[in-house]
Design brief:
CATH superfamily: Glutaredoxin
Helix content: 25-40%
Order of helices and strands: HEEEEEHEHEHEEH
GO molecular function: disulfide oxidoreductase activity
CATH topology: Glutaredoxin
Protein name: TlpA family protein disulfide reductase
Structural class: alpha+beta
CATH class: Alpha Beta
CATH architecture: 3-Layer(aba) Sandwich
Radius of gyration: 16 Å
Subcellular location: Cell envelope
Number of strands: 9
Signal peptide: 1-24
Distance between the termini: 48 Å
Number of helices: 5
Shape: globular
Strand content: 15-25%
Organism: Vreelandella glaciei
Number of domains: 1
Largest sheet: 9 strands, mixed
Length: 182
């Protein structure tokens, strides 16, 4: 019997993403904590999600800003650990030029995300939710947390797979330079 997660759309997206990442130009450099920067920006799948009030969003809604798109879930231990550091990063660098977009893939939706934000004191991150979980697959996130750095045109310029401490001085300096130069 086939495992339902390994069939259909998921497998196709995974294989396409793995192939495109393997064919992507080698990274021109890496940032703190293993953050990889691509030699040339990569197109990103069009994804849809909503805020906790049910307002629909796409990545195009953030065009003009450098975006740190973090894919996470409340049931993911490493995600839970890094969320306060993402909140601190948004507090430090959030502006008209930069935003941390924390995209939860919790199927229970905005209520569970809002409860989690209250529980751990998240104050600066907007709650974004993809109840379908398809954004994760469409963006080639082979695990969570996965974080993509998107340029002002919505193209992926870098990626970090796994947990990170987003509010370290090295990471803040790295992202401040990206904001100033990209």
């Amino acid at each position: 019997m086939k495992h339902p997660i390994l069939t259909g759309h998921f497998v196709a997206v995974f294989l396409m993403t793995a192939t495109s990442l393997a064919m992507a130009a080698p990274s021109e450099s890496s940032g703190p904590q293993g953050f990889l920067l691509w030699a040339t920006p990569n197109d990103v799948a069009q994804i849809s999600f909503e805020d906790s009030d049910g307002t629909p969003f796409t990545l195009a809604d953030f065009e003009g800003k450098l975006i740190l798109l973090n894919i996470w879930a409340t049931w993911c231990g490493p995600c839970r650990e890094e969320m306060p550091t993402l909140d601190a990063l948004q507090d430090e660098l959030g502006s008209d030029d930069f935003e941390v977009v924390a995209l939860s893939i919790d199927r229970k939706g905005g209520e569970i995300v809002n409860e989690f934000y209250q529980e751990i004191g998240i104050e600066h991150l907007a709650p974004y939710i993809d109840k379908t979980g398809m954004a994760s697959a469409d963006l080639g996130a082979v695990g969570i947390p996965t974080t993509l750095l998107l340029d002002r045109q919505g193209k992926e310029i870098g990626r970090l797979v796994g947990e990170a401490e987003w509010n370290t001085q090295d990471m803040i300096d790295f992202l401040a330079e990206m904001i100033a130069t990209r």
